[in-house]
Write a structure and sequence with these properties.
Radius of gyration: 38 Å
Low-confidence stretches: 98-112
Protein name: Family with sequence similarity 92 member A
InterPro entries: CBAR/FAM92
Oligomer: single chain
Organism: Nomascus leucogenys (Northern white-cheeked gibbon)
Structural class: mainly alpha
Largest sheet: none
Helix content: over 70%
């Protein structure tokens, strides 16, 4: 009698274990599939937006912008003006020494190469 009761109890334990295992596997796969569907749904939204953006590209307008960027009439003169106005009087005089080669060679080298100025942190002490 005890052997049959122990056998039924063991069988119930095995059945409960298998039932719980199937529930756990079902839950895990359901969550995985839900996450994957959300991911692919979002990816589809992104791809749809990208597709619409690509379809809305105006080739003629883009080509016109490209052509205009090739032939900017006064780009170099604007750049020269910006360069001339962005230097302080000290920077202009140091640049002149660097170009002309006047002054003491050590001073000119340091003035022309700001990476040699100062120690750690580039502070001049």
């Amino acid at each position: 009698v005890d052997a049959s009761r122990t056998s039924r109890h063991l069988e119930e334990t095995i059945n409960n274990f298998e039932r719980q295992k199937m529930k756990d596997i079902k839950t895990i796969f359901s969550e995985f599939i839900t996450i994957e569907m959300l991911f692919h749904g979002k990816a589809l939204e992104v791809y749809t937006a990208a597709y619409r953006t690509i379809q809305n590209i105006d080739e003629d307008e883009d080509l016109e912008v490209f052509r205009n960027s090739l032939y900017a009439p006064d780009y170099s003169s604007r750049l020269d003006i910006v360069r001339a106005n962005s230097k302080s009087p000290l920077q202009r005089s140091l640049s002149a020494k660097c170009v002309s080669g006047t002054g003491h060679s050590g001073v000119v080298a340091h003035a022309c190469n700001p990476s040699t100025l100062g120690g750690q942190g580039r502070w001049i002490t």
